[in-house]
Amino acid sequence: EPEVTQTPSHQVTQMGQEVILRCVPISNHLYFYWYRQILGQKVEFLVSFYNNEISEKSEIFDDQFSVERPDGSNFTLKIRSTKLEDSAMYFCASESYHPRESQETQYFGPGTRLLVL
Amino acid sequence: GESVGLHLPTLSVQEGDNSIINCAYSNSASDYFIWYKQESGKGPQFIIDIRSNMDKRQGQRVTVLLNKTVKHLSLQIAATQPGDSAVYFCAENTLRNRDDKIIFGKGTRLHILP
Question: Is B65 exposed, middle or buried (0-12, 13-18, 19+ CB in 10 A)?
């Protein structure tokens, strides 16, 4: 069964450093998302991406964050200068159809646990 | 602001019994609701969804009920098994423009007792 994959599974970094979290969405999917989950809290939307551009971003997704789809398979989230409060699980998700058109929903990857020291 | 939430943070159920996890939402315009299961260290896993024009939807051992009058959503799991132990999130899919970001509630941890 196709699945969303993410690398690395764990990342430890120093405050102020740049990190890039990588995702390989399901191959025929067109819509891509990043979410984060601070330990013990709910999953929060960060950004959605379609047709090589950001569709929507949350207040969390400030100028320190960026996303990119550098080739036909990878979808990356970059944090330019990490802060302590960026420590969280980051989930990538992908979807093939817009829900207005089908019953398809978002499929989530296993997550990358980011720890900023 | 927050539009989706859960009534109980933790629920313990005897193995083999049925469990019901409840959720309330506040946005009357919501038209798509999803239940996700999250096991420790893993990403949210889709369980079942329901559109706002439906009251009930059944899957394998799971049933979702939607009461739009009181803005309430529930997930029923029949004959619970040890593998059902996880955190369950109700979520709202906000359909606007091309985006359909998911808004998650805080989650209910389900413990299956032997």
Answer: middle
pLDDT digits (tens, 9 = 90+) for A77-90: 999 999 999 999 99
Cβ contacts of B59 on chain A, cutoff 8 Å? none
Category of B13 on φ-ψ map: left (φ > 0), alpha (ψ -120 to 50) or beta? beta
Q: Which residue of B has its CA nearest to A37?
A: B43
- Which tens digit of pLDDT belongs to each residue from B22-58? 998 877 777 889 999 999 888 899 899 998 889 999 9
The alpha carbon of residue A62 is apart from the nearest alpha carbon of chain B, in Å, by 17
Candidates A3, A105, A107: best to mutate against B (most CBs of B within 10 A) is A105
Taking only the tens place, the pLDDT of each residue in A19-57 is 999 999 998 888 899 999 998 888 999 999 988 899 889
Rounded to whole angstroms, the Cα distance separating A109 from A91 reads 6
pLDDT tens-digit readout, B1-13: 345 655 558 999 9
Is B89 within 8 Å of A42 when comparing Cβ atoms? yes
Q: Tell me the average pLDDT across A83-112.
A: 83
Closest-CA distance, B80 to chain A, in angstroms, reads 24
Contact A35 B103 (CB under 8 A): no
Give A86 to chain B, closest Cα distance, Å: 18
